Amino acid sequence: MLLFISMVVLRCCWGPTEYQLMQDLQKSPTILKTLIGTYKIKTLHETDVSTFNLNIAFDENAKTVSGFLGCNRFFGSYVLSENTLKFKPLSSTKKLCVEDKNTIETKLLKAFEKADRIFFTEEGFTLFNRKKPLLTADNLEDNTKISFEYTARSRGVYKHVKVDKDTISFSKKRKAKPLKIACDANYWNTLLSLTDSIHIETIPNLEAPSKAFQHDGAALAHLKIMYDGKTYASAPFDHGNPPKEIAALVKEILSSIENIE
């Protein structure tokens, strides 16, 4: 009986663990042990979380970190030495979020807090705590051939926002000269992450959930995404009530001008 149990244990535990495989991978000359730019978080505690569009961005010179938690943004600093990574206490914005996003945000912040090791891959990295995987993240592609435009207008409302990789241009008054501000890299990558979950070519066919704009009950709004030389424009919808498929993206675009007059 003892021999049988021993054989079962050997069979179950035979072979290197993921931690050991990743540790060996660090010896490869093709693996760069640096954190530069923005990464999309793919898994959290070995569960696929890609639909939440979580991301994390590193500024190697300033040793600062920031990113998107699914609803709120976070920011702080970190210390990296070889394969040891520690996040200093992180801060975040305080938007009200739905329950599933609150849960993901809490789990992600705790994962950052517990992280003690980082192993790099050609695609990104994996964080570990006590040799158990916490999360995996892949490099977020830098897509410079995309831009966004949102317009809302009625008798008493006017908003026009254009966003590209470098600039946010906006106007809150008709015929006013647009104001321009620099587009923050983390904000831009948040827009790209949100766009990942949208089938851009279907945008013209999305049905508006309400049409109060037809009788002056709401401002008439449009979203346009310019991608690879093509323009994908939505059908008209009520400002404040976009089709659910683009709601998160529209909200994020408008957040860039909320506190600017």
A few lines on this structure:
This protein has 261 residues and is an alpha+beta fold. The chain contains five helices and 17 strands.
Specify the oligomeric state. single chain
The share of residues in extended strands comes to 25-35%
Low-confidence stretches: 1-12
The count of domains is: 2
Biggest sheet features: 10 strands, antiparallel
SSE ordering: HHEEEEEEEHEEEEEEEHEEEH
User: Which descriptor suits the 3D outline?
Assistant: elongated
Q: What percent of residues adopt helix (DSSP H or I)?
A: 10-25%
Work out the helix count: 5
First-residue to last-residue Cα separation: 78 Å
- Category by helix and strand content: alpha+beta
How many E strands? 17
What average pLDDT do the residues reach? Answer: 87
Q: What Rg, in angstroms, do the CA atoms define?
A: 22 Å
Task: Name a few traits of the molecule.
single chain, 10-stranded antiparallel β-sheet, elongated, alpha+beta, 5 helices, 7-stranded antiparallel β-sheet, Lipocalin, 261 residues
Structural commentary:
This protein is α+β, with helices and mostly antiparallel strands. The chain folds into two domains: about 35-140, Lipocalin (Beta Barrel), CATH 2.40.128; about 145-255, no CATH class. It contains five helices and 17 strands. Strands 1, 2, 3, 4, 5, 6, 7, 8, 9 and 10 form a ten-stranded antiparallel sheet that branches. Strands 11, 12, 13, 14, 15, 16 and 17 form a seven-stranded antiparallel sheet that branches. The longest helix has 16 residues, at about 100-115. Mean pLDDT is about 85; it is low at about 1-10.
